[in-house]
């Protein structure tokens, strides 16, 4: 095992990493597409994951040029179905234990999600034993006040580190100085989507990629960024490898 940076703060993506929301996205999307005899395959879904809502929908619909509905109609119907399902979304294995462990040991944590804030609130409402621990330290994809570019650009992670945790990592769209680079190296990001992994890598922080096995089977393709570590599940994470306190409940 190669030496790892000693971590002082941790950032989490949400969809597909902390919660099993990707299943709901798939159900809702395919319910809409089924009316037109279409289906979203895994290779199409992989290209949507990690993107903000509109770019993801544009990518999806580009694969169905003969679909007789526009993007606004598609999103309205898909979101209607999703809204009925969000209260049922479960945590993914290892998420609760990891977040509670970091909180217990005073490690600064925040969420950086491409989800719209209204969706974040719906998804997290029944999971406050985990999301309440972030104490509102959450950056969402539609937080327009920060003028963020979407993943795979690193803006959302750098914004979360700066705004939520007070880390002096520099402006996302400016060249960082040496002190800002060193501050970035103290951060660890957990991601599941390929654009999110790229964004995390470009931020200058360390990144642990926890992809769905279907996504991993597709490989990196033309992507040049590489994760520092790839895990099958958050359950496989070992904090002591990163200079963090080891789990004390074993």
UniProtKB/TrEMBL annotation:
Return the InterPro entries for the record.
HAD-like_sf, HAD_2, HAD_sf, PGP-like_dom2
Domain of life assignment = Eukaryota
Q: One Pfam family this chain carries?
A: HAD_2
Query: What Gene Ontology molecular-function terms does this entry list?
Result: phosphatase activity
Gene3D superfamilies, per this entry? HAD superfamily/HAD-like, Putative phosphatase, domain 2
Name this protein carries in UniProt: HAD-like protein
């Amino acid at each position: 095992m190669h030496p790892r940076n000693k971590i002082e703060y941790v950032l989490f993506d949400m969809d597909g990493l902390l919660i099993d929301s990707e299943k709901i996205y798939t159900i809702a999307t395919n319910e809409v597409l089924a009316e037109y005899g279409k289906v979203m395959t895994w290779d199409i879904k992989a290209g949507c994951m990690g993107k903000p809502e509109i770019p993801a929908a544009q990518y999806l619909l580009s694969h169905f040029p003969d679909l007789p509905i526009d993007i606004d109609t598609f999103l309205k119907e898909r979101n209607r179905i999703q809204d009925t399902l969000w209260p049922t979304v479960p945590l993914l294995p290892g998420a609760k234990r990891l977040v509670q462990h970091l909180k217990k040991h005073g490690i600064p944590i925040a969420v950086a999600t491409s989800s719209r804030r209204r969706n974040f609130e719906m998804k997290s409402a029944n999971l406050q034993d985990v999301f309440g621990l972030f104490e509102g330290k959450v950056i969402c994809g539609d937080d327009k006040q920060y003028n963020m570019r979407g993943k795979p650009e690193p803006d959302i992670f750098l914004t979360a580190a700066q705004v939520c945790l007070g880390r002096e990592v520099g402006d996302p769209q400016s060249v960082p100085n040496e002190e800002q680079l060193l501050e970035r190296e103290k951060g660890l990001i957990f991601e599941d989507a390929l654009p999110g992994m790229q964004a995390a890598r470009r931020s200058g922080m360390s990144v642990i990629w926890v992809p769905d096995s279907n996504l991993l089977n597709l490989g990196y393709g033309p992507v040049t960024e590489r994760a520092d570590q790839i895990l099958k599940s958050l359950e496989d994470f070992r904090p002591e490898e990163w200079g963090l306190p080891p789990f004390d409940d074993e």
